Task: inverse folding
């Protein structure tokens, strides 16, 4: 029992460290790399910014997340070293870097800075594909 408790505690610390890394990326306009995203356990929910939560999806055959954004929430400037596909389920997004409105889907190539804002409550799937 003690060993299992220690293992759970170690895993919790590792997950917390990943989450801290991600919030740093989004607050500083840094790369959110594919390898870091892969370290997030399936089913884990990450608070990316105030009003922005993302849960790693299992069984999609790719690196995927279900993300929710409260109305007015902003996901800070960042970029990826992978291709990113956004598929909206509800709501809409505005890329503040380009002033592009995303009402259904968006495809963002690697190394392109984007900063997303949800003018209304929005939820979407995001899929990452390595270069």
Result:
């Amino acid at each position: 029992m003690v060993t299992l408790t220690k293992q759970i505690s170690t895993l919790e610390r590792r997950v917390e460290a990943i989450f801290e890394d991600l919030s740093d990326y989004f607050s500083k306009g840094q790369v959110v790399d594919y390898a870091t995203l892969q370290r997030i356990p399936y089913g884990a929910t990450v608070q990316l910014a105030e009003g922005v939560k993302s849960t790693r999806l299992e069984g999609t055959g790719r690196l995927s997340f279900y993300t929710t954004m409260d109305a007015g929430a902003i996901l800070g400037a960042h970029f990826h070293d992978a291709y990113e596909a956004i598929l909206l389920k509800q709501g809409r997004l505005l890329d503040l870097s380009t002033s592009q409105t995303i009402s259904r889907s968006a495809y963002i190539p690697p190394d392109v800075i984007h900063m997303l804002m949800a003018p209304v409550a929005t939820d979407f799937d995001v899929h990452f594909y390595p270069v």
Q: What stands out?
A: The two ends are 43 Å apart (CA to CA). The mean pLDDT is 86. The longest strand covers residues 82-90.
